[in-house]
Amino acid sequence: MSTVEELEAIVAKLESKLSALTQKNVPRGKIQQMSSEVVDSNPYSRLMALKRMGIVNNYERIRDYTVAVVGVGGVGSVTAEMLTRCGIGRLILFDYDKVELANMNRLFFQPHQSGLSKVEAAAETLRNINPDVDILTFNYNITTVENFDNFTNVLNTSSITNGPVDLVLSCVDNFEARFAINTACNEFNLTWFESGVSENAVSGHIQFIVPGETACFACAPPLIVASNIDEKTLKRDGVCAASLPTTMGIVAGFLVQNTLKYLLQFGQVTHYLGYSALTDFFPTMGLKPNPNCEDSHCRLRQKEFVAKPKTEMAVEAKEEEKPIHEDNEWGISLVNESVEEKEQVNVSEGVQLAYTLPSQSSIAECEEATVSDDVSLDELMAQMKSI
Amino acid sequence: MVDESTRKTLSNIALLKTKAGPRDKELWVQRLKEEYQSLIKYVQNNKDADNDWFRLESNKEGTKWFGKCWFIQDLLKYEFDVEFDIPVTYPTTAPEIALPELDGKTAKMYRGGKICLSDHFKPLWARNVPKFGIGHAMALGLGPWLAVEIPDLISKGVISYKEKTESGK
């Protein structure tokens, strides 16, 4: 049996532990006005100092802006945290995935959040970090028919003034979702950033897309940063994708840096910035839209942009490197179509197209499914079932 | 990569004409008809060639597809549920085929049991928009995946043969 003194000591220890724990979970109250007062208790003092230093003219305007983050994974969660710490007005998060222990090699999420939806887990952490940020969450897959309309509706009506969001950030990990975002942004004329990290984790990029003004995601095949790895030595056995917290953190940093520059109007917003981790090489370039883009809304935005009176801009007249092989009017191809099709097209130093698109299909010899109008869809469905 | 075996597989599946996705009302119905015709013929050909390996059907709108696929090894038939959604950006982007019951059993999958496609699939698909359809996604995506992954999963003991009542298919 313990003595009374020993028990009292244990009680005292537990009480102090308990009070430390409960104290930790009291979030601060909301702050009505961003202050530039330099005191330890002001979470915005170092940000507002950007004004005093002449970098940003009006930092507190950040509270007027709404940013949508699509995909809250390795890049998106860090992006959301950075914007939250910067005091963004409203943050809208989209993701349909759950937190897993397999995500712990990346930043932001913690093991105890395993099993929670990424958007809910993220929102809780972010509200705790900065209760001033208004956070909306949507836990669904944006690429499916049942969710896409809601997705575009949210993008168009969820700003602080119930208008379109100020910027969309694509932090998704697949081609389908990027294409869905591209479709939505072209259709509703929303400015967005595409971002990505390669599946081998050693390269990444961000791309700024103003519909009609810069190349959209459908204007050309995806760009890839040359990783300088011999493809033959790249083993993919048994895995889909690798990831590193470093590469993802760097890409998220690029993304939010350019988001801040775009929203608060300082510095230059980069149209394309790549990152090759193995060589520490950062290719950058401008990207013009493809007049023959497959996306009709992209072509419509291009027409609108051409018709719009240009504002005089004090920008250096710099020769922009145009992507070559943007269109191929005559269908000229040098590729032996039955053998190797990986033609390397350098768009800019260190950046290539993921693949090239022939204007004619390489498979022409099989017949086409011809539809006779006297068969109804229901009949076809029944026929399929009965095989 | 259009090698000889791929070429042979493809010559079995009728190409499609209408470039329309599920957001394109009337045209989508036209596209769906083509999809069904192409699939019916492909499945019929497979049956005739004694190489029957999947069945699919869809909801009324043609946006959700589900069915079964099977793989035969040592005279035993291993059967799996297949499902996928038609993305709003179809046919520019291919459907992401999933085998939900294998989720978590192999690293060659993304969340929800979506199969990991080869580096060649996406460029090949992109070059053949809008001619490729669901049949092509099955033949070029799921077919090769099953052929590589299922024997491996069987040998590792991750999946085992389950006695099934003969459905007479």
UniProtKB/TrEMBL annotation, chain A:
PROSITE patterns, alphabetized: D_2_HYDROXYACID_DH_1 (PS00065)
Would the keyword Lipoprotein turn up in this protein's UniProt record?
A: no
Q: Name one GO cellular component term.
A: cytosol
Q: What molecular functions are annotated in GO for this chain?
A: ATP binding; metal ion binding; UFM1 activating enzyme activity
Supply one GO BP term: protein ufmylation
SUPFAM superfamilies to which the protein is assigned, alphabetical? Activating enzymes of the ubiquitin-like proteins
ATP-binding keyword on record: yes
Q: Which InterPro entries match?
A: D-isomer_DH_CS1, ThiF/MoeB/HesA, ThiF_NAD_FAD-bd, Ubiquitin-activating_enz
Q: Which domain of life is it from?
A: Eukaryota
Quote the function comment for this protein: E1-like enzyme which activates UFM1.
Name the family.
Belongs to the ubiquitin-activating E1 family. UBA5 subfamily.
| Identification of the protein by name | Ubiquitin-like modifier-activating enzyme 5
Provenance organism: Phaedon cochleariae
Q: What is the lineage of its organism?
A: Eukaryota, Metazoa, Ecdysozoa, Arthropoda, Hexapoda
TrEMBL record, chain B:
A Pfam family of the record is: UFC1
GO biological process annotation, one example: protein K69-linked ufmylation
Q: Which UniProt keywords apply?
A: Ubl conjugation pathway
Cross-referenced InterPro entries: UBQ-conjugating_enzyme/RWD, Ufc1
TM ranges are: none
Picking any one GO molecular function of the record gives: UFM1 conjugating enzyme activity
Keyword DNA-binding carried by entry:
no
GO cellular component terms attached to this protein's record: cytoplasm
Which family is annotated? Belongs to the ubiquitin-conjugating enzyme family. UFC1 subfamily.
Q: What does this protein do?
A: E2-like enzyme which forms an intermediate with UFM1 via a thioester linkage.
What protein is this chain from? Ubiquitin-fold modifier-conjugating enzyme 1
From the broadest rank down, the organism's phylogenetic lineage runs: Eukaryota, Metazoa, Ecdysozoa, Arthropoda, Hexapoda
